[in-house]
């Protein structure tokens, strides 16, 4: 049995063997986007600024006070290598930060749309509940109150008492 056939039947091994490292064929297409966000987050920290400042200070001190044969960037020409290194860092940092901002804008746009839909549902629910409350209030107004029922019962009892008295008056007197 071929090795590919064995891998295709196993569920714990990715289909096709090893995973590709290229961004085009990578199953995790979001890896580069997460990397750009990591870079943008890291560059916005005090630790990064402190580290970069220390790097520049050490570079300048080394190339100023180290023995002549150990220096690799000259103070006489304005630390050209340092300028190139910082320019290279900035030329990569700017697009990575823009990519991270674009991803955040996309997430914000989706979140805003979801919030809008949620607000519409909440409004519809609130309107429905308001109509239900109004209907219940109208129904409660039409219900008989305790006092009304007591008055009706008293009136009915009075009517029955009056009939009993009339019946008693009309009845013939018992023969003695």
TrEMBL record:
Q: Where are the transmembrane segments?
A: 38-62, 77-99
Q: Which residues form a coiled coil?
A: 102-166
- A Pfam family annotated for this chain is DUF1003
The segments labelled Disordered in the record are: 1-25
InterPro entries from the UniProt entry: DUF1003 (IPR010406)
Keywords from the named record: Coiled coil, Membrane, Transmembrane, Transmembrane helix
Renumbered to this chain, the Basic and acidic residues biased-composition regions fall at 1-15
Domain of life assignment: Bacteria
Q: Which PANTHER family is this protein grouped with?
A: INTEGRAL MEMBRANE PROTEIN-RELATED, MEMBRANE PROTEIN
User: Can you say what this protein is called?
Assistant: DUF1003 domain-containing protein
Native species of this protein? Agromyces agglutinans
